[in-house]
Design goal:
With 307 residues, this protein is an alpha+beta fold. The strands form two sheets. Strands 1, 2, 3, 4, 5, 6, 7, 8, 9 and 10 form a ten-stranded mixed beta sheet that branches. It has a five-stranded mixed beta sheet with strand order 13-12-11-14-15. The chain is flat. The protein is built from eight helices and 15 strands. The longest helix is centred in the last third of the chain and has 24 residues, at 226-249. The relative contact order is 0.15. It folds into two domains: 2-140 and 288-302, ATPase, nucleotide binding domain (Nucleotidyltransferase, domain 5, 2-Layer Sandwich), CATH 3.30.420; 146-189 and 222-276, ATPase, nucleotide binding domain (Nucleotidyltransferase, domain 5, 2-Layer Sandwich), CATH 3.30.420. Helix 4 (189-204) crosses helix 6.
Length: 307
C-alpha cells in the first residue's frame, strides 16, 4: 500500500488461484452462508451477507467483472492492507490488472466493477471498515511484475507470467514493450493440475487431492509413494515442455532472448523444466504484480495523469 496525498493506493492482483496484495496472499475462494458460520477467522460481512474468504476454488472466468465474488475478495484485500497500519476509515484508489491482450477491451468495465460503490461499509475478521473508493486504474499483467526495472532491460527480453488460469507473454526490446508481441493464453498452472489429476486417475484408478498435486508442483516432492510421485512428475515435466513450445511460438529463443518468469508457473519451470540458467530469471515474489500496479499508479499520479 502506498500513500498519495490523502489517499491510499492499494494494488490487487486478482489471480484465479490466489489474491495478492503488496504484503498479503490468500486463496481465491468465497463461501457464502445465510448466517454466521462456525469458523469466523476470515469472515467478511457485507450488505447483510456472510462470506468466508479463502474457502473453495474459483473456476476460470474470462470476465471477472461478471462474478460478484471478486468484489468481495477485493474488499478483503483492501482490509488486509489497511489492517497493517491500523486504519479502518480511508479513501482508497485500487490499482489492478488484466491479462495483457484483454486489458484494452475490458479495463473500463473492470474499473466500473471495482468502483461500483463509492462508499462501502463492511466487516472483515471482526474489524469494521468504512472506505471511499475514489477510483480504479487497470494495468497489464505480466509487465507489472517487472515494471520497476523494465525500462533498464537491454537486448531482447521476454516476460512470461504463468498464473493459475492464464499465461501472458510480452517481448521487451531495450526497455521498450512491443505492442504487437504480447499474447494471452488459457494455459496456467491449474490446467497442469487438471492434467495431473486425469493422468493419475487413468494410471492408478484412484483419486488424488489437488492439495497434494499443488505441493508437488510447488516443491517438487511430497510425502507420497514413489510411484505416485513419478506420475505427477512425468505429467508436470511434459506440461513444462508445452510451456516452452508455446514460448518459442511467440519468439522465444534460449540463445538470444532473456526470459523472466513470473507467477506460480515459475515453480513448475524450476522444478520440472530444462532451461538455459544463464538466460532465465525467476520473479520469485508472488506479490510482484500487485507491487507493480502500485508502482505504476504512483508514477501516473506523480506525473499529474488523472484517473
Amino acid at each position: 500500500m502506498k500513500q498519495f496525498k490523502d489517499r491510499f493506493i492499494i494494488g490487487i492482483d486478482h489471480g484465479y488461484g490466489n489474491i495478492k496484495t503488496a504484503n498479503h496472499v490468500f486463496r481465491t475462494g468465497v463461501l457464502q452462508s445465510d448466517g454466521e458460520p462456525l469458523f469466523t477467522k476470515n469472515l467478511l460481512v457485507y450488505d447483510g451477507k456472510y462470506y468466508t474468504v479463502g474457502e473453495g476454488h474459483k473456476e476460470f472466468t474470462a470476465d471477472k467483472q461478471k462474478d460478484g465474488d471478486y468484489y468481495v475478495l477485493t474488499l478483503a484485500a483492501i482490509a488486509t492492507e489497511l489492517k497493517d497500519r491500523g486504519i479502518t476509515d480511508a479513501e482508497v484508489i485500487i490499482a489492478a490488472g488484466l491479462p495483457l491482450t484483454w486489458t484494452n477491451g475490458q479495463k473500463a468495465e473492470f474499473s466500473a466493477y471495482l468502483t461500483q460503490n463509492k462508499e462501502v461499509a463492511f466487516t472483515f475478521q471482526r474489524i469494521n471498515y468504512r472506505i471511499r473508493i475514489e477510483g480504479a486504474v487497470i494495468y497489464p499483467q505480466g509487465y507489472a511484475a517487472v515494471s520497476e526495472y523494465a525500462t533498464k532491460l537491454k537486448g531482447v527480453n521476454m516476460v512470461a507470467d504463468v498464473g493459475n488460469g492464464t499465461m501472458n507473454t510480452l517481448t521487451i526490446i531495450n526497455g521498450v514493450p512491443q505492442q504487437g508481441r504480447m499474447f494471452t493464453e488459457q494455459f496456467g498452472t491449474y490446467q497442469c493440475t487438471l492434467a495431473v489429476r486425469e493422468a493419475f486417475s487413468q494410471k492408478t484408478h484412484r483419486n488424488i487431492d489437488d492439495s497434494i498435486i499443488e505441493e508437488v508442483l510447488i516443491n517438487g516432492a511430497a510425502d507420497i509413494g514413489e510411484k505416485d510421485l513419478e506420475i505427477i512428475t512425468a505429467t508436470a515435466t511434459e506440461y513444462v515442455r508445452d510451456i516452452f513450445r508455446r514460448l518459442r511460438e511467440h519468439g522465444y529463443d534460449d540463445k538470444t532472448v532473456t526470459l523472466y518468469v513470473a507467477g506460480g508457473g515459475g515453480c513448475l519451470i524450476r522444478n520440472f523444466g530444462s532451461y538455459n540458467a544463464y538466460r532465465v530469471f525467476f520473479v520469485d515474489d508472488i506479490r510482484a504484480a500487485a507491487r507493480g500496479y502500485e508502482y505504476m499508479a504512483e508514477l501516473q499520479f506523480e506525473r499529474g495523469v488523472r484517473i
